[in-house]
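Input.
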Amino acid sequence: MKKQKVKIWRVSSGLVCLAGIGVAGALLATSCSQVQKAEAQPNLPDAPSVAVAKATRQDLDRNFKIAAEFRPYQEINVYAKVSGYVKHIDVDIGDRVRTGRLLAVLEIPELTAELDRAQASLRRDQEELKRAQGDLQRAQAAHQVTHLEYGRLAAVAKQRPELVAQQEIDDAQGRDLEGEAKVAAAKSSLAAAQEQLQIDQATLQKDQSMWDYSRITAPFSGVITKRYVDNGAMVASGISSEKQALPVVQLAQTDLLRLDIPVPEADVPKVRLRTPVEVYVQSINKTFPGLVARISDQVDMATRTMIAEVDVPNADLVLVPGMYAEATITLDHKRNAVVVPVQAVSRDANKSTVLMVDAKNKIAERTVTLGLETSNKVEIVAGINEGDMVVIGSRGQLQDGMTVKPKMVEGTGAEGKT
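Output.
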């Protein structure tokens, strides 16, 4: 009986030992599998998060924007050419007028008298001219008779000398010469009368021109922006030395407006005549097309800028001189360029670099060649390709080869023009 119990115990002990060995092996196998899995997968929950953006292809514009103030295409003060009293003024502030429209009429008694005198002188000269023409005709007719008489006597004396006395021939010759002199005098009188007529015609034309200035008209189409005088007011000539001479009205052309754009010296070579300009007016929330119409071709020494004048059509008169606008001039344009946000590029004296996140979420520093740059994007000519993810923002804690958790930032690579 004792031997049987011992045997049974030994068998049980063997079973226990085997069971222990099996459990230990299972635990060891499980531990090894977990280690292998930990080594196969990076511990992403512990990796730092970084903001990234994709390199995309798009059209890229480099623009120059500046605020400017509209001013009329033309604006003048309309002065009176001659001094006088305002007989009546036909326009007021806000009236739109066309070229040649009567604005005001002046009353000038002295000029009226001068004009009447010039007209009377002209009529007298015309009568004098007629008299001189009649005198010339009479002198020519009388000379023709004496000349024929002398010719006949001379011919007879040549053929039959004994028939005509020499005294008679000499008298006929004297009357012929006298008639010729009278013709010459009549011609001189006629010439003098013609000269006097021309002088008085010029005087009348001058007085008439001055009289025409009593009717003040619009030199171009526009709007009356100011009115300085009323009926009965005394206005001085605009060419007088009086400092107190007031204009009659102020006239502005507003169907076409100007913007003066000071272009920085660095951008001067990019601005040319007829360069398109976008003009945005915030007060009415509208954008208008414009063109560079004039450039000064000279950089101001004080501001280091060149003035470019932009013409903006305003046919419907929505725009008013004095309004502020934001003018945008496209200086450079690149089609289908690979671009990234400017925050992705790090620059030093020798090179430009970006931090790229590869397919294994590891940081890789790349040296890049830059092209066209705008305020928020930059073209990458070489170094990375379209679709590559680049780190944007702070990169002080990041190193080449570091594993990171990328977080795509929306709105950094899908915009259109800048």
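DSSP finds three helices and 20 strands in the chain.
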